[in-house]
Amino acid sequence: MATVARPGVQPAQRTLLTRMVRVMFPHDRFPDGPYQRTADAILEAAAEDVRLRAQLDQGLRDLDAAGGAPFEGLSDEQALDLLRGMSSTAFFEAVRAKTILTLYNDPEVWELLGWEGASYSKGGYVSRGFADLDWLPDPRIEEAS
Amino acid sequence: MASTNGHGAGNVFPIDSKPIDQDERDCVVVVGSGAGGGTIANQLCQQGIRTVVLEAGPHLTGRDYVNDEWEAFNQMAWLDPRTTSGSFRVARDFPNLPAWTVKAVGGSSTHWAGATPRFKDHELKARTTYGDLDGASLLDWPISLEDLEPHYDEAEKRMGVTHRWGRPPLPANNNYKVFANGAERVGYKRYATGPYGTNAEPYDGRPGSIQDGFNFQGDKDGSKWSTLVSELPKAGRTGNLDLRAQAHVVQITHDTRGRVDGVLYVDRDGALQRQRAGAVVVACNAIETARLLLLSASPLFPDGLANSSDQVGRNYMRHLTASIYSRFDKPVRMWRGETMAGLIADESDHDEDRGFAGGYYMEMLSLGPAFLAAFIDPGAWGPDFTAAMDAYEHTAGMWLVGEDMPQATNRVTLNASVTDQHGLPVPNVHFDDHPNDLAMREHAWAAGVAVYEAVGALGHVKTPPYPATHNLGTARMSERPEDGVVNEWGQAHDVPNLFVADGSVMTTGAAANPTLTIVALAMRTGDHLGERIRSGAV
């Protein structure tokens, strides 16, 4: 997904939003790419949505001001506490809702989580381990008589 | 007919459609092509009755379906605007998505998972069995299990249900191994990989399952029974079927005597069309069925068609629903294979000692990461949430589906202040959980956790209800006209040539997934309507 410079969206906002999304949904295994794509998706959506754009403009400024220091400089724990304090705001909820729909709908994230994605074109799993779990005994499949 | 499995672009099960004149009155109009509508259409066509099926959605096939959760959702789901009210959590989490149903040929039978338990005798006598529960509008069905049994037999054969009539069971997949071992260790006995409406081996011109793990997204192969791949193609081969997709019915019309005489629908080009008919069958899923009857108000029927009882839209049920997702120290890979081919029936009976009326099933379930993130704990974020997602590969899941109490105030109404793309009032779904529902859900969550802890679960998430796939009760069957909308044959008490053939007619919801019972009832109604047509009564 290409990053599009929109009027009103500054590179610093993208960086700040990326950091915010990572603090909200911290996965040690995830590189920056999925978080950046999520931030971009939020900014893309804002370009089409005045309410979201206005919320982001104010919300990101508040984010930088609320901790007594730039958000970027806060530790993970400090940043998390700060976000907990604003979790009931429309700004936070808009970012959270869009992140859920974007971050976990990312093929790189699917791979990182171990999900194998589309399978029909590979013949399903009938010959590819649909029953390869070996740490429990094979259970009965018929109904009890 | 294509019936090779996997690897290709997906199978198409062609549906022959032969035009019926729009002014022809010697035909039946069926509104909706899902489990109820598609089945009754076939039942009528097999009896030589010309049938027009009007489906609001497009004609998608196995070639169109995609192995991608959100893309498939946006392709198949009924996304016309809806509103919600009431204290149920879905109104907060998904205020414009009270239900997850399908708008396409085959309806929600293209989306169903496949579990096919039968309703139990005592569940059809819910008022007698459970007594007078405060706030519940319980009623005994006007039919007994004995009345339904021959239709259940036929429905199971028609659908090729596993574990029944010589159809082999599906094998255990990874999610089932965890589920069934847990069941065994807590002392449950009644667990199995079915009964389930997907072929383990080729049957009825459809292939056996390739265990591709995609199910709610439409089955590209057609190993799963649906009206899209079974009932409608069979109806088409009689030469009596006229199937029209993207035909959204907006009004059922009637003559001066109050007999229905046709429908008005918006076609794919947005033009209003009329189809005349000698009888009309409504099978739009419980929210849209109630909405269409209410939209069809007229000077003769000011409160909506077939609504002299004021019961249209009331007693809306959506089943208990809850889930458990547990994580383990070793991989599970729950997504590999059939989504719901695992049931535990031990908690499905009525046992007052548990502190609530009715019962529930535990059924294996898997979601991909995209949907798990959206549904596992709506609104959640932070490290606890991401820990659950990080464990995806090591997670096992189950759904808890049980009987919820009908309540007169749980209700589908028209929301006059919000309109859809055709300018029609959208349905509002009002729902409050009954105390019995809450007690059952707590019990079910605890029982689900116990199953997984018995095989070493490290942690779990108690997932609240999803948007409903089981929508029931809004045009319920009753013996007395003042208690419900239709009689035991699905015939409107108020209008002799108007029938309902979907989950709306269920007097109470029972614990079991409703599709098999919708099919059995639709076959029964179809046989009855055919007899009435032959005898000249309709």
* Straight-line distance between termini of chain A: 56 Å
Total number of helices of chain A: 6
Query: What's the oligomerization state?
Result: heterodimer
Instruction: Please provide the ordered H/E string of secondary-structure elements of chain B.
Output: EHEHEHHHHEHEEEEEHEEEHHEEEHEEH
Which shape of chain A, going by the Cα principal axes? elongated
The coarse overall form of chain B would be: globular
Biggest protein-protein contact in the assembly: A-B, 47 and 60 residues
Low-confidence stretches of chain A: none
Biggest β-sheet description of chain A: none
Q: What is the mean predicted local confidence, pLDDT of chain A?
A: 93
Helix content of chain B: 10-25%
Structure description:
The complex is a heterodimer of chains A (145) and B (538). In chain A, 54% of the residues lie in helices and 0% in strands. Chain A has 6 helices and no strands. In chain A, helix 1 crosses helix 2 and helix 3 crosses helix 5. The longest helix of chain A has 17 residues. With 538 residues, chain B is α/β, with parallel strands linked by helices. In chain B, 25% of the residues lie in helices and 16% in strands. Chain B is built from 12 helices and 17 strands. In chain B, the strands form 4 sheets. Chain B has a 6-stranded antiparallel β-sheet with strand order 4-11-12-13-10-16, with helices on one face. At the A-B interface, helix 5 and helix 6 of A face helix 6, strand 4, helix 9 and helix 10 of B.
